[in-house]
Amino acid sequence: MITKLPKWILWGGAVLAFSAGSVNSIALLGFTNLSVSHVTGNVSLFSAAIAHFDGRSVLLIGASLLAFLAGSILSGFIIGQNSLKLGRRYGSALYLEATLLMLSYWLYQQHDYLGQLAAAMACGLQNAMVATYSGAVIRTTHLTGLTSDMGAAIGNWMAGRSISKPTLGFQAIIWYCFCGGGVVGAFLYAKINYAAFIVPIIIVLAAAFIYNKVSDRLPERRRPTL
Fold first, then answer.
1. Any idea what the CATH number is for the domain that residue 161 is in?
2. Residue 133's beta-bridge partner residues?
3. pTM for the full model?
4. Helices (DSSP H) in the chain: which residue ranges?
5. 225 belongs to a structural domain
6. Is the CB of residue 98 less than 8 Å from the CB of residue 79?
7. Number of domains in the chain
8. Cα separation of 146 and 140, whole Å?
9. Is residue 218 one of the residues assigned to a domain?
10. pLDDT tier at 224 (50, 70, 90 boundaries)?
């Protein structure tokens, strides 16, 4: 349960959720019409493709699912552990995510399905990178579990039970930022097509740069290897 939320987690979670919402909207509106930021819906599509013996869709959707998993594996390899703590190699992971998004942008422009895979891998990397803080599960690329947690917390509050207001507030910020990112991504895609990827790329690069600057100010014994 979160009792006090460090600003770096608050701002980091917010901007990364905004970025993921934007990327997902662009992917959904693009030529693949397939999500890159979450898995549940794609698994349902994958199951339907199997049921209808649609081999092409099975391969394409399956590859996207595996790409998301691969991104999560990369996060575990680079960062390790599963709880947020200033001083870990988040800067390296963020720069890698930005690289994947730049690659995705270029590939989507060529109408190459590998752009879908690069974007899904970037989202898997981000989602696994932001895992937990003080026992609260933090997800920045999809809202299903977060919405359920918010609903349960509100229900407990209505029943007169104590809840963690900082946790609920943070979850609400993530929800609105993901939604806002989706609005911006959809709007920009309608205006400038796949160049809309420039916004999430800049956001992730800025987050990596700022994180590294903050980490450099830590005492030497706490400074991470970036």
1. 1.20.1250
2. 136
3. 0.88
4. 7-29, 40-51, 55-78, 90-109, 114-129, 144-158, 165-192, 198-216
5. no
6. no
7. 1
8. 9
9. no
10. very low
